[in-house]
Amino acid sequence: MPTLITVSDATAGPYGVTVGPDGALWFTLVHAGDLGRLAPDGRVDRFPVGAGPSLVTTGRDGALWLTLNQGNAVCRVTSDGEVTTFPVPTPGAGPFGITAGPDGALWFTELDADRIGRITVAGEVTEFPLPTTGAYPSTITAGPDGALWFTLNQGNAVGRITVTGETTLFPLPTEAAAPVGITAGPDGALWFVEIAAGQVGRITVAGEVTEFPLPDRACRPHAIAPATDGLWLTEWGTGRLAAVTPDGAVEEYELPGPAGSEPHGLVVGPDGTVHVALEIGAIARLGAGDR
Predict the structure, then answer these.
(1) DSSP assignment of 70-117
(2) Which residues touch 244 (CB under 8 Å, ≥6 apart)?
(3) Mean pLDDT of the chain
(4) Taking a C-beta distance cutoff of 8 angstroms, is the pair 108, 67 a contact?
(5) Nearest alpha carbon to residue 251 among 195, 189, 200
(6) Per-residue confidence (pLDDT) for residue 1, from 0 to 100
(7) Domain tally, the chain
(8) Of 31, 222, 264, 275, which residue is the catalytic one?
(9) Does 264 participate in catalysis according to the annotation?
(10) Does the structure show a pLDDT above 90 at 234?
(11) Overall pTM surpassing 0.90 (yes/no)
């Protein structure tokens, strides 16, 4: 059974989460405009970063990088809390997903501008328009092929972009599936979740898509993260966590807390512990011995 760690009040909104280079857990507080740090000893620190902090990742420079969806910027935070903000050139772009790229830069999605952005650790931003409109590019991850892979929530597709900006889109078999989270799996493929279809999907680097229905098609899967032997995903609509094997088998776990806990981002630590950000103001932790 997962344990629950309170990290904020119910209005702050824990959303994205990652393990930092300092061994602490770092998480965004989307409504409060802060980046939080949960130390191994349980201490919580908060750093004001700006409006709408969404997803967060660790850059190759050893800093935390996150998107400010409402602030239209990308933010860099050192492990001791020094904050630097870099505006996105396109007004109202709505940056959301972010990942460390194979080229040493950070790559991010622009929800409202149909663009993929690239920012160097020095803060230089380049934007790449997508060959579509109204597609709502959501999350992004580095693929095993040296390219970046991303979901198009309203475009019902998965996209691939090279580090030079060449883009390919792969439509999904299920109509209006609304993909959100995406990650590189342990099997050399990309895995993603379809929030409107209640499915988890797998796409090879050649673009071949397989979809696996989840036990509850109304569970609203939101985020997905890799583990050594499979993947984990959050079921936002039902307050559950699910483990998925590379062949599509699913095992679900009830998360503690009240109904409507709204699990969003998750990360699997080096020791296999799964951490889930709950918008009610907590981090759920599921260790290997809890399952």
Answers:
(1) TTTEEEEE-TT--EEEEE-SSTT--EEEEEE-TTSSEEEEETTTTEEE
(2) 191, 200, 212, 230, 231, 232, 233, 250
(3) 95
(4) yes
(5) 200
(6) 72
(7) 1
(8) 264
(9) yes
(10) yes
(11) yes
What average pLDDT does this structure show over 16-42? Answer: 96
Q: Which two tokens stand for residue 76?
A: 């860099």
CA dihedral 19→21→22→24, nearest 10 degrees, is -10
Q: Is 156 helix (H, G, I), strand (E, B) or coil?
A: coil
- Structure tokens of 291? 């399952």
CA atoms within 13 A on the CB side of 243: 17
In what order do the strands lie in the sheet containing 14-19? 14-19, 25-29, 34-38, 44-48
pLDDT at residue number 291 = 66
Query: E strands within 90-230?
Result: 95-100, 106-110, 115-119, 125-129, 137-142, 148-152, 157-161, 167-171, 179-184, 190-194, 199-203, 209-213, 221-226
Tokens 């691939």 sit at which residue? 160
> Which tokens hold the place of 197?
């279809």
Joined together, the tokens standing for residue 105 give: 């830069």
Helices (H) and strands (E) in the chain, counts: 0, 28
Query: Which residues constitute the domain of residue 132?
Result: 3-290
In the predicted model, what is the mean pLDDT of residues 6-23? 95
pLDDT level of residue 165 (50, 70, 90 thresholds)? very high
pLDDT at 154 over 80: yes
Cα 165 from chain centre? 21
When pLDDT is averaged across residues 59-76 and rounded to a whole number, the result is: 97
Distance between CA atoms of residues 261 and 3, nearest Å:
13
Q: Cβ of 196: how many Cβ atoms within 10 Å?
A: 18
Q: What is the CATH number for 268? A: 2.130.10.10
Q: Name the band, by pLDDT with cuts 50, 70 and 90, for residue 257.
A: confident
